[in-house]
Amino acid sequence: MRPFYKSSASPREASGYNTSLPARKRGMAESISRTTEHLNLQHGGFDAAQRIQLNRLLNVLHEKRRIIALVGAGISVSAGSTSILDKYRFHSAWLTFQIVPDFRSTAGLFDTPGNGPFRTSLGRDLFDASVYHNDVSTSSFHDMLRTLSASARSAKPTTFHHLLATLAHDGRLLRLYSQNVDGIDTAMEPLRTEVPLPKKAPWPKTIQLHGCVRKMVCSKCHRVSNFQAELFDGPIQPICADCEDNDKFRVKAGKRSHGVGNLRPRMVLYNGQNPDDEAIGSVIVSDLRARPDAFIVAGTTLKVPGARRIVREMCRLVRDQVGGVTIWISKEAAPKGKDLENCWDLVVRGSCDEVAQYAVMRRWDQELEYSETKYGNAKVRSVSLESVEVPERKQRQLLLSPLSLKIPQKVTGSKRRNPKVSTGSDTLKVRKVVRKRQVQIPQSIIDIVNKALGYNVR
Q1: Range of lowest pLDDT (254-258, 296-300, 375-379)
Q2: 62 is catalytic
């Protein structure tokens, strides 16, 4: 059976489901027509209708618990400076602020003529498996690899990268499917991946659909190691040191030579084979069974058939559920096509970083500062959220309410054993060690908590 990632079969067919059986009714939405709403962040101002859609977007980012995201190069274009790209420019927009190229947009690398020996060809020719057929194309490919590797390593995660990492750190990001080969996302601890991708669960948080320029692999022994840019210089492919040592040992022992493999970057080229195809198909089927409640596609044009198929199946599943939301985020319009009709609940036109700025989410690596106060047998923590800064311009535009900003709510004298104090993505519990099952929290404890949270105590 071909893996779902490369086949045209539906996830039910690919996973061996009996497609004649009806879908489960539990949690499924009624078959009613759903409209696609639009939000434009590029204009800056918001009317009442646009503010409603913006609040809808923010509620998804703050409230959904099983989010799946698929991202492309658009989330990385603002990841740093361009000093290292002065010699090799494949993309005119790099002259301004981009360090990682936008591959498939209307002015992206794949549709832009390159420099050097490949001046007459488009940038996509450098990402075709045929680059190894002659010395000129191999040398140009190696030059591009060294440049791209240095750029990716010097790049800093964007605000949208941090948003995804925060969702993963809080346990609300079910999976991240990344088409990027820069490895900026997987360099962050909450978004770690495994290379090669395991064929069975448990799977890492991030699934790299097209590999990564930070790893290289031997064409013979298939050993994966960290990318060494200095080896990829000129038209000759570097030799695998492990294969060379093993071959020398065999010859010295009087055995015949098995040959030596060449090193290549572990990234998927056009007309090339993806070594993780089978594992990716297994992850997709597993995530579909997990029934995500939100699906976000950001920074991509969905030109790759495999990624397009993932989006189609995810959107259908999420929109069939009660409360499920699908969101498209990009500076460009959502892709058209019969396979992607009625896929989106909300289309957001704007940069991914601007969406992250509006979300005003605490960064995953910024811990909540707290102090402990003992009162009898109870221990109360006062939380400081001063590290979360809200740009003044955003406050004026959105007129955000305290609920949207996730300001802690006032504690009431509930009779629940473990009353909760809501602090956005974190929840603190005030406990009193008693033997009775139900207790009334003393008013003094309630006053301490409210005072710690900044409320006036009567």
Answers
A1: 375-379
A2: no
Tell the residue number behind the tokens 């003529």, with chain if given: 113
Which residue in 156, 176, 167, 165 sits closest to 297, CA to CA?
Answer: 176
Can you give the residue ranges of every domain in the chain? 11-75+156-210+273-359, 369-452
CATH class of 11-75+156-210+273-359: alpha beta
Cα three-residue angle 218-224-226, rounded to 5 degrees: 110
Give the Cα separation of 70 and 310 in Å (integer). 9
Distance CA 329, CA 432 (A): 46
- Assess contact for 78 and 97: CB atoms under 8 A: yes
CA 75/CA 296 separation, integer angstroms: 13
Task: Report the chain's mean pLDDT, rounded to a whole number.
Answer: 75
pLDDT at 440: 63
Cis before residue 196, ω within 30 degrees of 0? yes
| Cα–Cα distance measured from residue 450 to residue 233, given in angstroms and rounded to the nearest whole number | 64
CA–CA separation, 299 and 73 (whole Å): 6
C-beta of residue 137 within 8 angstroms of C-beta of residue 123? no
Catalytic residue among 43, 210, 222, 258: 210
Q: Write phi, then psi, for 381 (nearest 5 degrees).
A: -110, 130
Burial track 61-92 (b if 16+ CB lie within 10 A, e otherwise) = bbebebbbbbbbbbbbbbbbeeebbeebbbbe
Closest CA to 401 of 51, 63, 163: 51
Confidence check: pLDDT of 403 > 70: no
